[in-house]
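Narrative of accomplishments. A recurring question from our advisory board has been how the design workflow behaves on a single, concrete structure rather than in aggregate. To address it, we present the structure tokens for one chain from the evaluation set, followed by the sequence designed for it. No filtering or post-editing was applied between the two.
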């Protein structure tokens, strides 16, 4: 039997810094990177392109099977996401897409339809998998597991700053309310709810800079062998 490649799972609520930390850690290690949230977001985008009714679970399951998602690395490590061949990277990051993805992600058949697609990312020399259920379900046998968290207020502040830098003006209280609603939806769903795996190292990133979080995560892994 071939040995499975090493996996580091990084789970946590939205805005905890998972995406940024996971991408930096993957680059430092020279490992593959799976942004599992992008798969749920891609299905959300494809569903809205097809004008599907978000309450029609059967149509959303069909849409999950039919949606092609490709991650393409452009210059300077920039990752673009193609949905059915169309670059949907910017649309994927919208708050509205995140909310649709969170609703779609509560459908058990959608989750199981995406299971094997996510597992296919596990390749040598290793994988950093970012999401909500990477350590609890998809890669329950991962060698390294991290759960990143931060207070809802801090996560809303970070998101607010990010959006302001992009020239997008949003009301802070609305953002905080949306983050709290998404947390509740992700944590309370019956299938694969957002929670740390029993064997995950929980890191509260409130008040921490990205570099410190990256260093804490890399500390959990054995130092690379020197030639
Ligand atoms: O990480 P993200 O914000 O891009 O994820 C968008 C939504 O997708 C999130 O609200 C919940 C869902 N999701 C999930 O249920 N399981 C994952 N492994 C990743 C994301």
């Amino acid at each position: 039997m071939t040995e499975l490649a090493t996996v580091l799972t990084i789970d946590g609520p939205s805005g905890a810094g998972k995406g940024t930390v996971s991408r930096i850690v993957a680059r430092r290690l020279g490992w593959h990177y799976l942004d599992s949230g992008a798969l749920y977001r891609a299905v959300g985008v494809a569903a809205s392109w097809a004008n599907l009714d978000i309450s029609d679970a059967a149509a959303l399951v069909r849409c999950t099977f039919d949606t092609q998602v490709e991650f393409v690395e452009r210059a300077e490590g920039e990752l673009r996401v193609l949905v059915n061949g169309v670059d949907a990277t910017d649309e994927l990051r919208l708050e509205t897409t995140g909310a649709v993805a969170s609703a779609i992600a509560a459908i058990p058949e959608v989750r199981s339809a995406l299971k094997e697609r996510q597992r296919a990312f596990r390749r040598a020399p290793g994988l950093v998998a970012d999401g909500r259920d990477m350590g609890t379900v998809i890669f329950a046998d991962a060698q390294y597991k991290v759960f990143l968290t931060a207070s809802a207020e801090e996560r809303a502040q970070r998101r607010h700053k990010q959006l302001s830098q992009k020239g997008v003006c949003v009301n802070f209280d609305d953002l905080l309310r949306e983050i709290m609603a998404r947390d509740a939806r992700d944590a309370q769903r019956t299938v694969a709810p957002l929670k740390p795996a029993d064997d995950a190292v929980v890191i509260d990133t409130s008040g921490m800079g990205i570099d410190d979080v990256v260093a804490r995560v890399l500390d959990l892994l054995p130092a690379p062998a020197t030639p």
